[in-house]
Amino acid sequence: MTASPTVRRRRIARELRQLRERSGMTLDVAARQLDMSKSNLSRIENAQIGIKPRDVRAALALYQVTGADAEALIEIARDAQQRGWWQNYSDVLPEWFEFYVGLEAEAARLRTYEAEAVPGLLQTEAYAREVYRRTAGEEGLERKVAARLRRQEVLRRDDPVELSVVLNEAVLWRPVGGPAVMAEQLTHMARAAQSLNVTIQVLPFSAGGHPAMSSPYVILSFADAADASVVYLDNLTMGLALEEAAHVHGYSLVHEELCRLALSPADSVARLKEASRHFA
Fold it and tell me: I need a labelling partner for 135 at 20 to 30 A (CA). Which of 5, 62, 119, 236 fits?
């Protein structure tokens, strides 16, 4: 698994905030001691901006952290300065979505519900192209599609991400890109569901109302316990990361309920194949 600078920046931010709080220092006091503004230190501690390794070393000295513990955190800060592959697509990926991709790149587990479209990690090239064309126009289209396909490498790496998808049944029947595109997309998902790390469940119309009717979501979890899970929500113009444990727990309960209401994985594959035959 490739280390993500986004995940490393998030971890060093949390560690510095916790160390400052344990030392009993306020943001004001710590910022003055570190010769930076209070707002800058706050943004560092909230992972809104990065911090250079030398500044991490100064902060650790202030908080009286030395030896192997200090060196380990400084190494994390160095990793946080590396470039992620997604930064090569910054011309077509908004900053708020780059943050998500950076988390996704190192996630060990993803749980998601989609109401209108196939999740990006499972989209075929033709389906992805049509989605972007409909939602964002032609500008940068091929670069956006290329970035989306590159994201899918997390499913094929040596230690692949574990993906649990619940799909509104409407996704199967909405003819995005026409019959040929849909037939290919549905067949692709049915095949993907045969992988040990991919579970797809269809939430049938017959399930009626459910707790995610107002909000598709992604819950990202990580192999290292030091990296807390995140709930990610987005729309056409912005993304929102919810990091509080209560939010993650709430959405986790919602996902469990959707999995209970949805068709079994085997029946979902059968439904995907049925829809594919319809469009073929």
Answer: 5
